[in-house]
Design a protein that fits this description.
alpha/beta, 293 residues
């Protein structure tokens, strides 16, 4: 079993502290971010035990599991979500027009329902029993818990993980199962925050997308490229998620206790997207990986 001080990407045992980050969701506990000295992968330390992770996910603040908005950020999230759903469909259909899709970490199934409405066959995996029940009713499709999900050999044309990989304690084991479940030539989409973005650099240890300790891992393009080779998958390209820059920057400005946090967050989000047009380092990135034929 890999120790907490061993990099899961390259196996190096030497990690250096980047800085300390607070859990802004409610516990106010402090966690270190540590960087691998060999491949620069960043991880959260100490990593909560699997059995303890649930207490860091207060239902009221984990909006993707809810059906209806309950606060200002929920309302912003749900409005952005509507535009994001169309954007996700358009990006997926660059590679696969129709077929069978699995969404790993599907929440209450809004994405699955939207894809189903647009002609896709859908299934999902979701940890939250309450969210899984909503997703199942919404789509009348199979929604498994992570423990229930087993390899579905060569079944899916597309598998998506929308801001999920960073939450998974044993993400490589999950990817192995998902890769085996993809059809030859199938597409794996992985969306994760990008700590090389302008908003991440601007807000430093107040950047909301560090989101410790529920974000166990912190990815960038170089790391995903390295992992794609390790998984024997073809790295096709990265695509930006421009709405995330605004949402994350507003949360980050709140973490700073900034007056006028809404306007400050909107401005930094705009700057981040502007800079990303040139350097391709958006606040969140979608990585498109392809399984070999």
């Amino acid at each position: 079993m890999r120790s907490e001080n061993q990099c899961p990407v390259c196996g190096n045992n030497h990690l250096e502290k980047v800085f300390k980050v607070l859990d802004f969701r409610g516990s106010d506990e402090a966690f270190d971010l540590k960087r691998c000295t060999a491949c620069s992968f960043i991880l959260t330390s100490p990593r909560p035990q699997d059995a303890e992770l649930g207490r860091y996910y207060p239902k009221s603040s984990y909006v993707s599991h809810n059906e209806r908005p309950t606060g200002v950020f929920d309302r912003i999230y749900f409005q952005v979500q509507k535009a994001n759903l169309r954007d996700k469909l358009n990006k997926i259909q660059l590679y696969s027009k129709k077929g069978f899709l699995l969404d790993y970490g599907c929440g209450s199934g809004s994405f699955l329902g939207f894809m189903q409405q647009n002609g896709w066959m859908v299934e999902g995996v979701e940890l939250s029993k309450e969210a899984a029940e909503i997703a199942s009713k919404r789509t009348n499709s199979s929604i498994w818990s992570p423990d229930e999900f087993v390899i579905q050999p060569n079944k899916y044309d597309v598998i998506s993980l929308w801001h999920v990989l960073e939450h998974l304690p044993d993400f490589e084991r999950v990817i192995d199962k998902l890769k085996a479940s993809l059809k030859p030539g199938g597409i794996l989409l992985i969306a994760v925050p990008n700590h090389k973005s302008y908003d991440a650099q601007f807000f430093g240890n107040k950047w909301a997308a560090w989101d410790v300790p529920i974000h166990l891992w912190h990815f960038n393009k170089e790391v995903i490229n390295r992992l794609a080779k390790k998984w024997k998958m073809q790295f096709l390209e990265t695509l930006p998620m421009p709405f995330d820059a605004f949402y994350v920057s507003m949360l980050s400005a709140q973490n700073q206790k900034s007056k006028g946090w809404f306007l400050k967050g909107a401005w930094i989000g705009l700057l981040s997207n502007f800079k990303a047009k040139r350097n391709k380092e958006a606040s969140s990135l979608i990585y498109i990986l392809k399984k070999g034929n």
